[in-house]
């Protein structure tokens, strides 16, 4: 059951969803969903169907062990890319400030007719 919980966690992370968001969609508490992800709670067929639908999977795809290897934990890569994106955004802001300053300087230095 721990493998299934790990798979559910990785699927959730792939979607970029928090435990709170998934718990709300499944109509369970956050601690109850956390127990599903950690494998503490055994899931009944009804709950497995609900989770499979949430992630657009068939029940077989959800419980199949072979799919577990295909799901990768991209959380570190996503964090790294988010930091790089923020750095680029900061660079763009600085360049825009320089352009505005240069434009203002140009207006000041240009004689009016």
Task: Provide the CATH superfamily of the largest domain.
Answer: lambda repressor-like DNA-binding domains
Biggest beta sheet summary? none
Sheet-strand content, in percent, reads under 5%
CATH class of the largest domain: Mainly Alpha
The residue fraction in helices comes out at over 70%
- Look up the CATH topology of the largest domain: 434 Repressor (Amino-terminal Domain)
The H/E string reads HHHHHH
Low-confidence stretches: none
Query: Judging by the overall fold, what is the CATH architecture of the largest domain?
Result: Orthogonal Bundle
What is the count of helical runs? 6
Terminal Cα span: 81 Å
Radius of gyration from the alpha-carbon trace, in angstroms: 24 Å
Pfam family, one: HTH_3
Organism: Sphingobacterium zeae
InterPro entries: Cro/C1-type_HTH, Lambda_DNA-bd_dom_sf
Domain HTH cro/C1-type: 8-62
Blueprint (SSEs and pairs):
Layout: H1 2-15, H2 19-26, H3 30-38, H4 45-54, H5 59-63, H6 75-109
Short characterization:
The chain is mainly α and 113 residues long.
How would you portray this structure in words?
The protein has 113 residues and is mainly alpha-helical. It has two domains: 2-70, lambda repressor-like DNA-binding domains (434 Repressor (Amino-terminal Domain)); 74-113. The protein is 72% helix and 0% strand. It contains six helices and no strands. The chain is rod-shaped. The mean pLDDT is 87.
Which keywords apply here?
113 residues, mainly alpha, 434 Repressor (Amino-terminal Domain)
């Amino acid at each position: 059951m721990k493998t299934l919980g790990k798979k559910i966690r990785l699927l959730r992370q792939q979607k970029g969803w928090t435990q709170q968001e998934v718990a709300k969609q499944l109509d369970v508490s956050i601690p109850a969903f956390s127990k599903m992800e950690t494998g503490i709670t055994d899931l009944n067929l009804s709950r497995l169907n609900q989770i499979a639908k949430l992630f657009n999977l068939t029940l077989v795809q959800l419980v199949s062990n072979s799919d577990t290897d295909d799901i990768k934990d991209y959380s570190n890569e996503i964090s790294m890319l988010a930091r790089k994106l923020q750095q680029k955004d900061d660079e763009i802001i600085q360049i825009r400030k320089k352009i505005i300053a240069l434009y203002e300087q140009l207006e000041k230095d240009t004689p009016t007719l």
